[in-house]
Each structure stands twice: as structure tokens, then as C-alpha cells.
User: What shape does this take?
Amino acid sequence: MLIFDLDGTISDPLPGIAQAINHALSEFGFPTLPEQDVAPFVGPPLDGTFLQLTGAGHPEVLELIATYRECYRDSCLQNTVYGGVPETLAALSSAGVRMGICTSKRADFAERILSHLGLRPHFEFVSGGDIGIHKWQQLEALQAAGTLQPHAMMIGDRAVDIEAGRRNGLRTGGVLWGFGSRAELEEAAPDVMFTQPDEWLEIKPS
Assistant: This one.
């Protein structure tokens, strides 16, 4: 079984995320950011992002997140799939490989994006996060529910994906086309590093 992160692994969400973050910052009187300056914040949970960007207290951070999500309902569709991903997922599905999504993004947004991109049928489940829930806890819950197969692999573009997989005893794979740098991924030390999506076809059962 392969478990994929969404943002930075399956698709590029930057324009929609940047729009929603800047909408929230503007509504609360904080300076907005150029799109490229938002890129480092794609992947980690929103509460940490807004805390780092604003220094606001917990109640205001929650208000910023609520305002972000109001905008993101629509801006989430400004999301483009990475080249080679649809063909690779289709080939994996045809080969009978079981797949799922584990993202820090709220599940309803993730479901909407995957359906918009035409990719939802490839995945058995979509695990979404929320404030205060770590990705390793999402994987832990999937294991407790019997959803994950033994020797499943967690694949993502950020250290948080690799750390979450390792904490749950999973194999891990890092992708080099997302928002995490090579240095970030090398420090996290995934079992495999991928330079393009069709390399997912080479994963051998363990």
C-alpha cells in the first residue's frame, strides 16, 4: 500500500493557498506576502504557519484560520496536478496497488481537490487533518482502524511526512519536486528518494 501526501506530492496548490493566506492576513491587518514567499509554508499545519507569520495569540490564530478557510473553499481549485502523476496513479491502480491520501489539509478540501483533478477514484481513503492533529497521529489512527497494510509506504515532499511514517513503523519515500528542499528530505532520511512520479512504479513490496 502507498500512502501519499497531497500538497507538493500529488499536486501544486501554491496559488490557491497564497490567495487564502493573504486574504486572511489582509482581513486582520497584517502585511501580505508575494506568492513565492508562501511556498515554505505549504505542508505544515496552518496554526504554526499563522503563528510564525503574525506572532498572534492562539484565539486570533484560530480566527485567521477560519478566515483562510472561507477563502480556500473556492481558491483550493487553483490546484494543478504534477506532470506524470495521473498516468502513474492510473498504472498503479491497474496493477492492483492499494493507495490512500494522508494530508494535513482538512479532508473535505482534499476530497474536493482530488475530485476536481479526476484522481479520487485511485484512492481507498482520504485522511485529512485539523488543528492540533499531527500527521503521525493520522497515520496512527489509520493503523489502529486496520486501514493500513503491513509494510505500507508514506510518500511526501516534506520532513513531516517522513517523520510521521517512520514514527509509525512505515517505509518512507521523499519526492524532490515539491516544497521541501533536498537538504530537508536528506536530513529526514527517507528509505527512498524519488525524482519523478513514474519511479513509484518501481516500488517493490517489502
Remarks:
- Strands lie at 2-4, 11-12, 80-81, 99-103, 126-128, 153-156, 171-175, 192-194.
